[in-house]
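Protein modeling request. Please complete all fields; requests missing the sequence field cannot be processed.
Requester role: graduate student
Desired output: 3D structure, token encoding
Chains: 1
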Amino acid sequence: MVELRASFNARILKLENQYDIRRELININADKRALDVLASNMEFIHVRLEQVDTREANRIKQEVIKLGGEAAISQEAYSYTVRTTNMLISASRKNLEFLAKKLATPQFELEKIGKELERCLDEAKGNFVVGNKVFDFNHTAYLSGMIRQRPGVTEKRILDKVERYCNAGADIIEILVGYSGRLFHGDAVSAEECKDFAHLIYMVKKNFPHVVVSTDVSKVALAKAALESGAEMFCNVIPIRYNLELIQFIAKHNLPMLLMYAPSLNRMPQPLGVVSDILRDIQANTNFAVSNGVSREKIIVDPSICFGRKDKDNFLMMRQLSNFRHLRMPMSVMFSRKSFLNSSLVGSVRKQQINSVISNTLAVLNNCNIVRMESSEQISLLRNILNILHPAVEA
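Delivered output (395 residues):
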């Protein structure tokens, strides 16, 4: 005889976005290969449309109901006694995405509404959660201060620099191990290296708990030590297809990843013909990461301006940064102290510093979401610029 349980602990969960849904799916050990489909089906979205032609509103309502959702229009719109009506649509993300594409077909001739609905759904994905911090990439850009861990640099010196970054308005602190030749080979990481690296991250988080800590480790041993010490995001600095073990580690812990454009081990890109070449490579790397369990919603892309490119190629990428929005993922750039910027302005007063700020401002105006910098002075100046660009949004 099967014993019946007295209680199954039924309770209502407030799952407000895909990150909340994914967290609960992982908690019940759902198939990771199905996370994208499940989250899309379970994310229920409410959309308001205004001044829709009454005839079109009734047609849209019928389509929504067919898809298993619901739509409401004004009382007068049911009897066609008004020309236009506001309407409220409620359905899963998956069904709303299907509806948007269907409305844009010649059969319905509601292309404008379909495209606006599609844009609205894209914007709903704009919140990027890292640790306890929510990044609203739809309304502002964020600043990342970079620190390179080098032999002989004391812990106090590093913490002092972190403090200057934080006072200047940095949102992220990147602790860079550096991509020397050993990153591309099987060199083992010593226990002492892991211990020192873990201690550094721990001290940064202990003294500055409000900032997100990121790191560019390429060895799983260092990544594990960093995660246990408080690191919340990882930066990929070599082609991910050469570091499957790290990708699987990031996927296992559902961590955010900054995916940099890196087509080859020697990091010497060929002359750039069109930006679409880089777009294709980033998309291929993204697909590789996703196919190995990394959540697409956890990926930030970086086109890797400079890194061995010629000046004309770098400026071409700067002019066409907005094209990377077609990837529909947050974008990061780094112009700090790049030598190619010397040719863009003349002058003798900290020329690279001035040029970096100008370039980073242009990147923000071209929809860049995260700007990575190596100077607290630059961060302070760019923070003031961001406050002017986005006065209504607290960065």
